[in-house]
């Protein structure tokens, strides 16, 4: 699924689910650069469920905006389970949202390594009074646009599952 227009029904379903439960969301995005929030805001009425979004592409932004600990970034790296968890929990703490999703990965075409190849994306979902969940996906090196679209689709699904 690399066509962003195919993601609109998923975003709409998420907005409706959040509205029905009276919940607000936030997103902490790195490799998707705000794509999840952009998809949600395409849906009329999304202002009732989207508090804010954080585009934290650099490590400095992750630390400044989300309070991701410097030692986590130094030890585990920006693309890691630890960072994804800290991003989601930081977004929740720095917003009025009830649930948060985070995305950090390597969209390519460069930047990958044997340990962390292009297409590796870590996600986390956090919620008030909920245990933070983590998911790692290896989408493969299928192009920057495809990896970003797949990441956005996965983030919408993770957030929807969190509030079920």
Automatic annotation (TrEMBL):
It holds the Pfam family CinA. Residues 11-162 form the CinA C-terminal domain. InterPro entries: CinA-like_C (IPR036653), CinA_C (IPR008136). This is CinA family protein. It comes from Pannonibacter anstelovis.
